[in-house]
Amino acid sequence: MARPRILVVGAGFAGVECVRRLERGLVPGEAEIALVAPFSYQLYLPLLPQVAAGVLTPQSVAVSLRRSRKHRTRIIPGGAIGVDPEAKICVVRKITDEIVYEPYDYLVISAGSITRTFDIPGLLDNARGMKTLAEAAYIRDHVIAQLDLADASHDENERASRLQFVVVGGGYAGTETAACLQRLTTNAVGHYPRLDPKLIKWHLIDIAPKLMPELGDKLGRSALEVLRARGIEVSLGVSIAEAAPEKVTFTDGRVLPCRTLIWTAGVTASPLVSTFDAETVRGRLAVTPEMSLPGFDGIFALGDCAAVPDLSKGDGAVCPPTAQHAMRQGRRLADNLIATLRHQPLKPYVHKDLGLVVDLGGKDAVSKPLGVELHGITAQAVARGYHWSALRTNVAKARVMTNWVLNAVAGDDFVRTGFQSRKPAKLRDFEYTGAYLTPAEVREHTAALHTRT
């Protein structure tokens, strides 16, 4: 009898935790495991702002999936672009652009999320995100390039536009990105004697009335005070009306000369969820507490692309798209898959949120572990301790700790690594969102497979 085939889509926190748990829990030969991933690493997303600021090297937050030879999972280098539940086929575009059809008995959709955008003129052409390792490396090069180009320019208007930076999104990603990069430019400007430090201005804007409301009013205000004390102009209740190559227009009518627009205004589920007809909740797949997809045999979903019920809160709440939930969902789903194979009952996912940490760079941070509000050095220690402990391998932990110590002792460096090209990258250049199929296109691709079965 052929072994059951378990296909996991996505190598984020949820997918990797699920795969590793399956490898430990399954008896050799009990099932075949395959993982679809465009990159052979797991990205520790919460530390991307520190990569953009040069505090951490890119390889520090990219944990290789191929480092251990003990793993029994087959890695398929590519991205899932469609699902045909009737044929039990996942359509995969490999990194060579070859289209392959991966059969499955059990499909785990942990495809994560992409940057959420809106129909704002010029946004897709002139903004950059903070969702991938390539984006973080690109933004670092871009920001340092603006200092170099401003230093080389004799045009005062050009200098002003190159030295104004706008970050949209007052959540964790946007707040940490603005804080870390502002600290980088503040430290760098001392090495540019021709530049007036007063010309360097960072703006953080968000349509919401509060900064990081999840932290609560007290800590939210503390973070706001830290940012404003550093000279970051925070505008709430404001968004972008238009994004041009050399200026940004706010919804309150202000027009800023600006050549750096970083867009971190939330995420939305991977387009993979719309390649077949399934019920969604605010764009995320509606699943049971056991993370199975109702009405679809052998399909499970978790992480950012799934609306997993938050049983610890009740009242119809769903788990937020955070790393701590994704990792724990991955482990629970692996246990449920093993239980399914062994005809045992499944268990629901239950986890009470452990709290939130926000690293603002240097000695600044705000944290709320287990409901205890912290700020300053203590919060910084908690934030970095949490991130350090969550890294999956000892090699990654050693690299991150070494980078933190080196940065604390030696300070920042301001070297461009060459990612910045003469042709600016666009927001969609990094996430390949145009690759996904419609449900009709999926059926067209798998039509021949239906006739064989």
TrEMBL record:
Entry coiled-coil feature ranges: none
Gene3D superfamilies: 3.50.50.100
Protein family according to the UniProt entry: Belongs to the NADH dehydrogenase family.
Keyword Oxidoreductase annotated: yes
Signal peptide start-end: none
Top-level taxon of the source organism: Bacteria
SUPFAM superfamilies the UniProt entry points to: FAD/NAD(P)-binding domain
PANTHER family in alphabetical order: NADH DEHYDROGENASE, NADH DEHYDROGENASE-LIKE PROTEIN RV1812C
UniProt keyword NAD, yes or no: yes
Record keywords: FAD, Flavoprotein, NAD, Oxidoreductase
Name of the protein in its database record: NAD(P)/FAD-dependent oxidoreductase
InterPro entries (UniProt xref): FAD/NAD-bd_sf (IPR036188), FAD/NAD-binding_dom (IPR023753), NDH-2 (IPR045024)
Limits of the FAD/NAD(P)-binding domain: 5-330
